[in-house]
Write a structure and sequence with these properties.
The chain is mostly beta strands. The protein has strands at 4-5, 15-20, 32-35, 51-56. A 4-stranded antiparallel beta sheet has the order 1-4-2-3, with no helix packed on it. The termini are far apart.
């Protein structure tokens, strides 16, 4: 199972996801989203063909 997923897919696991290029490379000004348990699907990326890569567990809320 890859860490990269397409927009619109249900995330495998909750966590921090960063936008990546079509072949997994870095993109300028990537979006970063936090996916909580029960969130679905993954949001759209800034450009077609990009994917989401899980970079770690969800960050705690700042209250």
């Amino acid at each position: 199972m890859s860490n990269r997923q397409k927009p619109g897919e249900n995330p495998y696991r909750p966590g921090e996801y960063t936008e990546r290029g079509p072949r997994g490379g870095e993109v300028p000004n990537p979006r970063t989203v936090t996916i909580e348990p029960g969130d679905k699907p993954l949001p759209p990326t800034q450009k077609p063909g990009r994917t989401w890569e899980r970079t770690g567990p969800p960050k705690p809320d700042k209250k």
